[in-house]
Amino acid sequence: QLQLVESGGGVVQPGGSLRLSCAASGSDFSLHTMAWQRQAPGAQRYSVSYITSGGTIYYDDSVKGRFTISRDDVKKMVYLEMTNLKPDDTAVYFCKARGPSGVSYWGQGTQVTVAS
């Protein structure tokens, strides 16, 4: 079982940058696929990026070229570097872990607001 805590959200102007962090506690972190999901008001939650235990990375087209995901299995951390932020990036961002058994865990979320 994993517990996840996100941090790093905030208010930023269009074109700005933020770095989200997700701290995990529990066992077998390195075996989990780690994802960043986001949910805007009135919209469905979806994955903007994930990184597998083997290092395979996925980006949604909406963030490709602007966001970078990384993980540190020693520190049990996952990061999402977000650059050239747009108002459409405004959402609550959630860290998600999915283990080999298929069980998933989520953090409580961190708000990102992009506004001038």
Folded structure, characterized:
There is one protein chain. Strand 5 and strand 6 form a beta hairpin. The protein is mainly β. The strands form 2 sheets. Strands 2, 4, 5, 6, 9, 10 and 11 form a 7-stranded mixed sheet that branches. The chain contains no helices and 11 strands.
Summarize the structure.
The chain has 116 residues and is an all-beta fold. The chain is 0% helix and 53% strand.
Could you give the topology of this structure?
Blueprint: E1 2-7, E2 10-12, E3 18-26, E4 33-39, E5 46-51, E6 57-59, E7 67-72, E8 77-82, E9 91-98, E10 104-106, E11 110-114
Parallel strand pairs: 2-11
Antiparallel strand pairs: 1-3, 3-8, 4-5, 4-9, 5-6, 7-8, 9-10, 9-11
Roughly what percent helix?
under 10%
Question: Termini, distance in Å?
Answer: 40 Å
Number of helices: 0
Radius of gyration: 13 Å
Tell me the total number of β-strands. 11
Mean pLDDT: 97
Q: What structural class do you assign from the helix and strand content?
A: mainly beta
User: Main beta sheet: strand number and arrangement?
Assistant: 7 strands, mixed
Provide the low-confidence segments as ranges: none
What's the helix-strand series? Answer: EEEEEEEEEEE
| Shape label | globular
Portion in strands: over 45%
Highlighted features:
116 residues; 0% helix; globular; seven-stranded mixed sheet; mainly beta
